[in-house]
Amino acid sequence: MTSGQDRVQVAIVGSGPAGLSAAAHAAHLGMSHVLIEKTDHLSDTIFKYQKGKHVMATPSNLVLRSDLDFDAGSREEILGIWDRQIAEGKVNVRYNAEVTAITGDKGAYVIEVKGGAPIHAENVVLAIGTQGNPNLLRIPGAEMPHIQYQLDDPGEYFDEHITVIGSGDAGIENALGLAADPAQRNTVTILNRRNSFARAKGANVKLLEEAEADGRISVRRETSPQEVRPGELVLDTRDGEEVIRCDRIIARTGSKPPRDFVEAIGVQFASEERDAFPQLTPTFETTKNGVHVIGALAGYPLIKHCMNQGYDVIEFLNGNTDLKPADQPILEEKFAKLPDRYPVEHWLDVIGSNVAIFRELSPLQLRELLLDSTVEAFAPGEAVFIRNEPGSSMFAIAQGSVAVEVNPNDPSVTVPIEEGSIFGEVGLISGRRRGATIRAAEPLVVVELSRNAALKLIATVPSAGRVVNQISIERQLLQMFGSGLTREDVAALVQQAEVVDVRAGQKVIEEGAEDRDIYVIRRGSMIVEKDIGGKPVFLSYLPAGSYFGEMAVIDGSKRTATVKAAIKSEVVRFPGEAFNALLDAKPRLREKALEEMAGRREVTAFVEARKDSFGSAADMYSETAQFLVDNGIGEATDVLLIDETLCVGCDNCEKACADSHEGLSRLDREAGRTYAHLHVPTSCRHCEHPHCMADCPPNAIKRGPDGEVFIDDTCIGCGNCQRNCPYGVIRMDAVPPEKPGLLSWLLFGKGPGPGEASYSWRKEHSGEGQAKLAIKCDMCLGIDGGPACVRACPTGAAIRVAPEKFLSVTREGGLD
C-alpha cells in the first residue's frame, strides 16, 4: 500500500475489469503503480451484480489479453478468481480511497483522496466506469421510496408486483433473476419503450423471450412509465394510458459519465451531448497529456474489451507503441477485400472522418462497431441492392457516391447520394423491401450495418441518431412535396425540425387554436375531428407519411379541426414561418398545397352544412370510425373488412385462403369484432410498423413490394411474432401434408375436402414431432388475382382496403 509520498509511474483510478487488468499488468512488468478503489472491495460494478448472475465473456472471437483470467461464469466465481490473482500478483491496492480531485500535468499529477494523503503519479489511468451515475426517472412520483436503481439479491423479494424499467442487459438480467424462482411468487413486468432490444446482448434477449413464452415475465413493448403512484404505475402504451399494480420499481435506465469530475481534470468530451464520451487517441490518451481513459468511460462496456484495454494502456505507458489492439486480425480480414490493400488504420481514419454518423465515435467505439458490420467495395455501375429486394440493413458511404434509380421504368433517372451520407434507412425503420435500385456512381466503399448494429448505434450515440433523423426527415420532405425540390430548398426547414412523441389520444392540434406549426406523421396515424353541436365528429384519417396543419399556416386562420393520435405516434414539427418561406420560394409547391387544402375544406364544409340534419348518422359515422381505429386500423396498411349485410356465411373466404396456403387458413371469419354492419375478422392488418417484425431472430418477416408483411421459409418457430402481435392474427402450426386433389375427393371420397383440414386429419397424416411455424396472411403474395378471400366471396361482402379508403367509404355511407 502506497504511503502517499512516493511518486508512482502510474495511478489507476477504479478497480473494475479495466482497472484491475491494468494494475495486474503494471505489477507483472514491475512498474511502480497504485490501484485506487473507493470501496473496501475490488470491482464494485461486478460486486454489485445480482447474486448468482451469469457473466458472459463476449465477443467470443476476440482474444483476451490480460494477466488475469476471465471466462464466462457466475459473479461469485469471477470475483473469487480476481481477488486471488490480485493478491498473488502483489498488486498495490489502496482501498477506501475516494478521489476528489486530480491536478497537475504529465509527470507530476497530484491525486487528492478524501480523508487521506494525496498520491503523486507521473501518469493517470481513469477506469472509473459510469455506474455510479445512474439516469434517474423524470416523471411524476419519481421520488417515491419504492423506486430503486440497483438490485443486489433477487431472492430477497416475495409476493410482489415488480416492474423493471429499462431494456438493456441490466434490466433484462434483473427481470430474469426476479422471476427465476416460482416459489417467490413475484409478478414481474419489464418495460421497453421500443419494439426491439437494441441495447442488449442476443443471449439475454433470447432468455427473456423464453421467460415471456413460459409466462414468467410480462414484456411490455412500446411502453414507457408515465407516473408513479402508491401501489400503481401509470403506463403510456401504444393504445393509450394504462394503470398496473406495482409494489416495487427497479429502474435500470442506464448511466452517464461523471462529466464534471473528468472535465475538471482538463479532459475534453467528444460533444456537448449528455451521454458523450471523452475524446481519446488510439493509445487511450485524452486531451490532457498523461491522463488515459479505459473501460466503460471510454465507451467500451464489454468486460473482455475493458480487460484488453487495461493491458494495452500499460504496454503503451511502458514504451510499446507498436502494440496493435486485440481485434486487429479481425479487422484486417474485413478490410482485406477493399482496394489497394491499405492498412486497418487507414480505413479507420477514412470511415471515421468521412461518414457523418461516425464522426463523434472514438477510435475504440468505431472499432467495436466495425466488428459487427460488413465493409464492401463496388465498381462503378455495380448494384449495391435492387428494387424490391428484402433487406433491413443500413449503409454508410465511406468513399465515393451512389445513384438512386427513382423511376422503375427508366433507370437513367437517378438521384445522387454523396460520400459521408447513408442509405437504406427506410428498410431499417419500417422493414419494407428496398424501395429503389442503388448503384455505385464511382468507385465505392460502404459500411453495411446490420439492423441490430444500426439500432444500437442510434440508441447509444446521440450524434448518430441526430444525423439519421435529419437525413430521414429531409428525404421524407422531398418525397412528400416533390415539385422539383432539392436538398438545398428544404435545408432551413430540416434544420428547424423537431421530432415529437405523441401518446395515443393526445391532441397535436386543437380546434380554435392560433398556433402556426405544420406537422408530418413519421410513425403511427392521426384522426381529424370537428366539434359539431358539442360532439366530436370524425372528418378523416391520416396515415404515416401524411402532413397536416398547413391550412392555418398558409392563410393565417385559426385551427378548423382537432388532430389527435389514433395510436402512439411520432410526428415531426416544422415552424410555420419556415414553411411559408419555402412556399414563397416555390410557387408550384404553394399551388399544390392550396389544391390539397381546398379538398380538406370541402369535407369540413360538407359536415358543417349538414350539422342540423344528420345528427344520429354523424354519431354513427364517428363511432364506426373510432371502432375501426380501436381495432388496429390506426396502424394498418391493408385490412380485411366484411360487410355483414352482404355476408351469407358460406365460408368461401376461409376455404379459399386454406386452399391457397398449403391447407392452412390465415383467416378466421367468425372471430374478431363487429360494429353495426362492419366486421373486422382475424386477419393480418399489415401494419405500417409491424410488431411481429420487431423481435424475429432470423429476420424471417419481410415486406413485399406492395406493402404485404409475410413470413419466409427461414422461420424457426420461436413464436415471438405471435406474442408481439396485438391483434392475435398469427398462429403457430405445423404445415400439414399435401391433400388429395379435388377430383379424388369428389369421386372417391379421399381427403378432407376443400378448405382447411380438420385437426384430427392433420394429426393422423402428419409426421411425429413436426415443428410448428408461424402462419399469417400474406395477401396471397405471388398469386395471380390478389387475395383469394376477396376473389372467393360471392356477394362482395369481403373487401381489403387501405384505411384511408374505407374511412372515406364510411363517411359517404354514414352521412348520405
UniProtKB/TrEMBL annotation:
Q: Which Gene3D superfamilies match?
A: 3.30.70.20, FAD/NAD(P)-binding domain (3.50.50.60), Jelly Rolls (2.60.120.10)
The protein here is known as Cyclic nucleotide-binding domain-containing protein
MF terms from GO for this chain are: 4 iron, 4 sulfur cluster binding; metal ion binding
Alphabetically sorted, this entry's keywords are: 4Fe-4S, Electron transport, Iron, Iron-sulfur, Metal-binding, Transport
Q: Where is the 4Fe-4S ferredoxin-type domain?
A: 638-670, 675-706, 707-735, 771-804
> Per UniProt, what is one Pfam family of this protein?
cNMP_binding
Residue ranges of the Cyclic nucleotide-binding domain? 357-458, 481-600
Which SUPFAM superfamilies does this chain map to? 4Fe-4S ferredoxins (SSF54862), cAMP-binding domain-like (SSF51206), FAD/NAD(P)-binding domain (SSF51905)
Q: Which InterPro entries match?
A: 4Fe4S_Fe-S-bd, 4Fe4S_Fe_S_CS, cNMP-bd_CS, cNMP-bd_dom, cNMP-bd_dom_sf, FAD/NAD-bd_sf, RmlC-like_jellyroll, RnfB_subfamily
